[in-house]
Amino acid sequence: MSSDTVRVRFAPSPTGFLHVGGLRTALFNFLFARKTGGKFILRIEDTDRTRYVEGAVENLIKTLHWAGLEYDEGPIAGGDYGPYVQSERTDIYKKHIEILLEKRVAYRCFCTPERLEQMRKEQEKKRLSPKYDRRCLLLSEKEVQDSIASGKPFVVRMKVPEHVPVRFSDIIRGEVEFMSDRVDDQVLLKSDGYPTYHLANVVDDHLMKISHVIRGEEWLSSTPKHVLLYEFFGWELPKFAHLPLLLNPDRSKLSKRQGDVAVEDYRAKGYLKEALVNFIALLGWNPGDEREIFTLEELEKEFSLERVNKSGAVFNIEKLNWLNFQHLRRKPDTEVLAMLKEYLTHSQNSLQFTVHSSQFDDQYLLSVIGAMRERVTFVKDFVEKSPYFFQAPKAYDPAVVKKRWNQQTPEHLKVLVDEFSQLVSPQKKDYEAALHRAAESSKIGNGGLIHPLRLAVSGMGEGPGLFDIVLILGKEETIRRINLAIERIK
RNA sequence: GGCGCUAUCGUCUAGUGGCCUAGGACGUCGCCCUCUCAAGGCGAAAACACGGGUUCGACUCCCGUUAGCGCUACCA
Questions:
Q1: Is the CB of A462 under 7 A from strand B?
Q2: I need a surface site. Which of A258, A261, A306, A428 has the fewest CB within 10 A?
Q3: How is A16-65 classified by DSSP, letter by letter?
Q4: Is A248 within 7 A of strand B by CB distance?
Q5: What CATH number does the domain located at A398-488 have?
Q6: pLDDT at residue A350 above 70?
Q7: pTM of the predicted model, to two decimals?
Q8: C-beta within 7 A of nucleic chain B, residues 148-187 of A
Q9: Distance, CA of A316 to C1' of B20, in Å
Q10: Does residue A142 carry a catalytic annotation?
Q11: Thinking of the domain A89-243, which architecture would CATH place it in?
Q12: What is the domain class of A7-86+246-314 according to CATH?
């Protein structure tokens, strides 16, 4: 490229949902663009009509937007180098195929898929690496013209030069070299008139003035084909950076079967975009110091390709959970409140809220958030880990009953109810003092009352400070629950 | 099979020849705090794949072995 402006692209093919590996590739491209003041471009690689999925493009854009990775040029948004959807650029590819044909660095191939398959089988039998045998390269000009005239379907293949080293420099991996003999005469234009990835990719990257090709490591092996194509056209090579793969816990390439791979899945499970972005940024990249928690804005400032690793990284859900916890904790109350309300309205059906009718005012929810903040990883945990703030206990944890509840407990709690009943607009310290008085008059330790009370109001043996719970629930509800527990726990 | 890439605690990683008796984080375990559970604090167990070189000196450089992964389509 003549200018030194950084232009990078994320070029997914719309075959379904956005894969977390794809999001990572998109993120690194985005961060590199932001860091260098360059442009981040979205290009849709939909040249395989058989794999096209309805709505996939919209979903891709939606998911990228959710993650905060806004593109500067691309479908819908537009830009000076469009269209950004490859299926709308077929004329461009055809024009470039003509150039290659003209230069004799590409040729038409009339071989049928059946013959190709047969050929491959035989090569495999002889333990040769499968490679097109160049039969159609031997066709005379007349034979070619006749075949075209007779309407025989054909593809266009690149003519790979024999026995020359193909070298390129990868920002992450250094110098990489392949011998051209190992490179197949790759199909560039399919018989349906659509280009293959290899052609479309090179043509578009050049035409869109892409300065850095940042993509997954699975593309490293086909890069020689691309390098050759740039040479054929006489174009300057972009810089390459092949990112390490994301792996399953068993170190195979990240896939379904072993968990969720769609960004949508994580979003649906309640993961914050901040956590997911932070997590995948750390998969293959690190700042060089000991910081772990990053916002997207911080990543934009810190990122560099030089600090990207070479080896694959296992997608470790435990750390993602921890990051979700960290990012959730850092959110202001008002934001958490909005998320909690959103969650509550969507889960109304499965829960029967019995506290304070079915509506919880902001003040109430805010106090629940304050009490549970240190104890939740997901927004849903506010309800799942402390359901007692939303409904009276339906059952009492048997293990806790066994440990904290004895024959005298109901008597002691009755004394406590008396003490609580006399309180007027009690504060936390008032409940505490009342409990102390009740314990004293029953001649038991505070713990003998605290634990049963916790069980009575929450049904479980864990949670925020007991007096925080009682204060949040309020005097009436607390007394109601104590009486309920006395009736129900035997 | 061929070609290519990779190789530090279970996992993510720091480390660019002496600072390494290898640092941090997640997870695990223990202790402290404490009405419980968390959070927090403190601490523990836990790694340089192997073998050769190069060098006064290798986790770091080179070679080989092994292992893992990727590619090997008219898919991207």
A1: yes
A2: A306
A3: SSPBHHHHHHHHHHHHHHHHHT-EEEE-B----GGG--TTHHHHHHHHHH
A4: no
A5: 1.10.10.350
A6: no
A7: 0.94
A8: 153, 155, 173-174, 176-179, 182, 184, 187
A9: 28
A10: no
A11: 3-Layer(aba) Sandwich (3.40)
A12: alpha beta
